[in-house]
Amino acid sequence: MDIDLSPEDLAFADDVRSFLADNAYKAGEDFGQWRFEWFEKAKAKGGWDVPKWPKEFGGPGWTPTQHYIWERETARANTPWDMPFGVGMLAPILMGYGNKEQQERFLPPIRTRKQNWCQGYSEPGAGSDLASLKTKAELSADGSHYVVNGTKIWTTAAHIADWMFCLTRTDDSGKKQQGITFLLIPMNDPGIEVKPIITLGGAHSVNMVYINDVKVPVTDRVGEEGKGWTYAKGLLQHERTGIAGVSRSVFALENLKRNAASVKRGNGTLLDESGYAKKLAELEIDLMALEFTELRSLASASAGAAPGPESSIMKLKGTDIQQRTQKLTVEAAGIFGPAWGKSKVGPDFGRAGMGGYLASRAYTIYGGASEVQRDVIAKNVLGLKKSSGK
Amino acid sequence: MDFNFSDEQTLLGESVERFVQDNYDLETRIKLANSKEGFSSDYWNTMAELGWFGMPFSEADGGFGGNQIDTMVMMEAFGKGLVLEPFFASIVLGGNALARAGSEEQKAAHLPSVIDGSKRLTLAYAEEQARFDLFDVTTTGKLSGDTLTINGAKSMVPSAGAADTFVVSVRTSGGQMDKNGISLVLVDASADGVSVDDFPTVDGLRAGEVTFTNVEVPAGNVLGEPDNGFDVLSAVARDAILALSAEALGAMEILYKDTIEYTQEREQFDHALSDFQVLQHRMVDMFVEYEQCKSLLYRATLEVVQGADTADRTVHALKHLIGKAGYFIGENAVQLHGGMGMTEELRVGHFFKRLVVLDTQFGNADHHLEQFAA
Lengths: 390, 374
Known about the structure:
The complex is a heterodimer. By secondary structure, chain A is α+β, with helices and mostly antiparallel strands.
């Protein structure tokens, strides 16, 4: 065992750092323009715009260590926002199960970030129990298209998306995991209606999506009819690892410490308060361990392969850590926590903190609630079965 | 030993609960919270007519001679609807400070209109640098002849925009952290040099930053003896904690009961969510925490009413537990409601937000744990 970075890795880290520094956003620049150009330049570096894509699809073919370095450095730097749906979630499915025509049609605009995607999974009656989804896709008599009807909920970014990848039911005669079909649906179809859902932090990021008689050509079906659940399951594991956000948490903890140190208390700072300091230390210890859980998982997964059940461990602990970080931010703000975004009082971090804390409560709900992650670990990792008694 | 409320207290509780039930559905509350005033003047007047504002004041002061138990009964019921009217600011804070420290003349000048609802008070006690320490006061009050000149700023003043008069803690002598040298002063909201920046807080209530720039008030506006305001401030803070804890208890009850109801209706994996043992146990823990809070609230309130030596320590214990349990019950109510718990459409999120804010008022769970252990 060895935790030192090799000279090659150190050189790579330097390369990443200087790339990020050279291409950081400068005040006054057109933000949208900068964002697209940033991805272009990252592409020119050899696939840095799509770090997780396999080499044959234009990815960089990094070692796990290089991925780790990239995550750490980008979490710290001012990189352009990026939605996980296209590059991170749909692209691997298209690579694995889509046909050549679909790959050629969708991967390039996904890669440039000029085409935005959203994920049509959850439904009002299908949350943690996703497989019970009911959005119906009926094949036309001539077999040329599906007619889709149903309602999706919690659809992040549906209001800005061009396309939705969508789980639909084409058959309800067998087990509920069977008969699910993976379709690509354009959001500008007149049969699509998007209604915002305002969440506790006051933000609009999720939506209801009503699908009324939308015709989807069979050519926009990914893989085989009725196999959608298998494709989606692999995707869920990608999503979970992403949600764990270890690198972001490392960076967030550094911020939190800085913020807490700026809060005066008597002659010292908040860091001198025993209760607060203890919670901060416990958080850091958990995060130190999770960093290595992630590294171990990276090292064991061959590049490009879907992560296994360890993604549930990552999601469980990762979201817990993010929530605790947010809560400690609210606590650091003291009396000013409730002032949040709408006023100008108290420390800047404190006003942002409350919205962040409230939004973070969803982390243990979406992408499979923590209770479900524990079920997954119990069943698939520990091999525990639910017995029906003697 | 007797844990029963008096007949009057039971009736009072029922009357406030009925008012909340009839007038505080979620939709109405959201509308009121978003209105210009942030609450209903009609409700305020109704509360005054029902005599609720006179409850904790002595008969000599024009009240009904109640005590912290009566306030607890009312605040718990208010907590079940997240009532927006500034009862807490005007009665539990401002009116209380005035009744405790004011001269007969000062009380006669203000309390009758506080009790009949025509005048609203609040307490401006917190400062930006002070975090939760009531004695950390930099707002100055300089006495010169018959005039007191006030300079400084107070933060997160509850219901500041609705107040006609502030009770302000000012430093009339001593250093920034000295408990001696703090005075409580009545300052008119409309006095020259007073500016109020009023804003909504995350729980739908309002708070304000109040700045004082060369504000001149008559020396007679000082409540009680100059320099000796800290004891009164502490006593008011203690009552405030009891009242807020009672409100929290009401909110917790709604949260755990709504969660039980929702999990029985919502089906996933071909079962009602309430069939899953892991969720049953979570709800049991929420309920147990709620009961523990209720016990400590009763204990602390009774100790304060009876003037027990241990009262201060028990109040620290109470605010610690309320803060901790408030987060636990609120977070789990949201968690067990799933995505729906994250929306503004269901009331659980609103009750959760109130509990989070409650923890920041008059010292959070950590602060009181530290005081308790000291």
